[in-house]
Amino acid sequence: DSGVTQTPKHLITATGQRVTLRCSPRSGDLSVYWYQQSLDQGLQFLIQYYNGEERAKGNILERFSAQQFPDLHSELNLSSLELGDSALYFCASSVDGYSNQPQHFGDGTRLSIL
Amino acid sequence: AQTVTQSQPEMSVQEAETVTLSCTYDTSESDYYLFWYKQPPSRQMILVIRQEAYKQQNATENRFSVNFQKAAKSFSLKISDSQLGDAAMYFCAYRSGVTTDSWGKLQFGAGTQVVVTP
């Protein structure tokens, strides 16, 4: 158990819909990362938050947004969903974003768009 | 931008034998970290081992060890005494040192599928 909790584990929805993925980091971790794993794109970094502030952005679509709340949990919002958004979405956390401390991953949320 | 290349889509190994997975990366930075993550069929991402670029000594974690060749930008993973539970997808990942734009994001390779046969 990595200590990172992601909910829900599975999500099935239709094109055009909006979903919210939730992540609770490990106790003591201030940094939260979101990654997308798809068959064609592999594992891609989406966005990172540190102590409530956005720190780095990767290949995140404009239809996607995220935030980190004062209690440090994070949410990834995906809107106007397309078939290509079907993927495994991982949240990871680390103590900070700059030391040698590794990122620990949650079990992921599998999103299926029908 | 950094790139991570894993040139072996799949590697097969017999139980108790040794297998080596290759990883090369491209960077102009001198301060960075390298990781190997394991993803079993359960799809979890499990940290296997990590290496700081400033350390010359190769990291070791039980049956897992790395061969870090900084000049060659190579970071291979050796799995000794392979077990059935080692069967998984293995990802090599690069993380920059302190930078203002990447701030700790992981750049992953495409992965190598390890098949362990009895």
Description:
The complex is a heterodimer of chains A (114) and B (118). Chain A is mainly beta. In chain A, strands 2, 4, 5, 6, 9, 10 and 11 form a 7-stranded mixed β-sheet that branches. A 4-stranded antiparallel β-sheet of chain A has the order 1-3-8-7, with no helix packed on it. Helices cover 0% and strands 53% of the residues of chain A. The mean pLDDT of chain A is 94. Chain A starts with a strand and ends with a strand. Chain B is mostly beta strands and 118 residues long. Helices cover 0% and strands 52% of the residues of chain B. Chain B has no helices and 12 strands. Chain B is globular. The relative contact order of chain B is 0.34. The model of chain B has no long low-confidence stretch (mean pLDDT 93). The chains are: A mainly beta (114), B mainly beta (118). Chains A and B meet through strand 4, strand 5, strand 9 and strand 10 of A and strand 5, strand 6 and strand 11 of B.
Strand content of chain B: over 45%
Question: What is the C-alpha radius of gyration of chain A, as a whole number of Å?
Answer: 13 Å
Helix content of chain A: under 10%
DSSP helical segment count of chain A = 0
Major β-sheet annotation of chain B: 6 strands, mixed
* Biggest interface pair, counts: A-B, 28 and 24 residues
Rg from Cα of chain B: 14 Å
**In what range is the share of β-strand residues of chain A?**
over 45%
> How many helix segments of chain B?
0
Number of strands of chain A: 11
Helix content of chain B: under 10%
Which secondary structure elements does this structure contain, and how are they paired or packed?
The complex is a heterodimer of chains A (114) and B (118).
Chain A: E1 5-7, E2 10-13, E3 19-24, E4 31-38, E5 42-50, E6 53-57, E7 64-68, E8 74-78, E9 87-94, E10 104-105, E11 109-113
Parallel strand pairs in A: 2-11
Antiparallel strand pairs in A: 1-3, 3-8, 4-5, 4-9, 5-6, 7-8, 9-10, 9-11
Chain B: E1 3-5, E2 10-14, E3 19-21, E4 24-26, E5 32-39, E6 46-52, E7 60-61, E8 64-69, E9 74-79, E10 88-96, E11 106-108, E12 112-117
